[in-house]
Amino acid sequence: ARGIDGGSVTLALDLEGIAASTGSACSSGSAEFGSFLTAMGYPVEEARGALRLSLGRTTTVGDVDEAARIVPEVLRRLIGAAPHPSEVDAG
Q: Among all residues, which ones are annotated catalytic?
């Protein structure tokens, strides 16, 4: 989401019991935020907010349903708490 750092999102989701990552799987463990997104034309500001959720053999339908409920709630909360451009400019 614009204006929200991916690291903030992953931390907030972790507190809700959802493991998430930023960047691409092939750059895991690095600070790279998904050059594949910028290569696709996404602005750097949006690419920095990218979030990666993965599924595994032990992932259940209930897990997916729970994530589908929690992720939007967390994003709405973070967007609501983010400073608006006019507030930052007035700084």
A: 26
SS3 21: strand
> What is the per-residue pLDDT across 23-36, written as a single tens digit (0 to 9) for each?
665 555 554 555 77
Residue entry with tokens 């290569």:
39
Alpha-carbon 3 to chain mean position = 11
90, two tokens:
């007035």
Half-sphere exposure of 37 (CA within 13 A, CB side): 19
At position 27, the amino acid (one-letter code) is: S
3-state secondary structure of 78: helix
Other beta carbons within 10 angstroms of residue 18's beta carbon come to 16
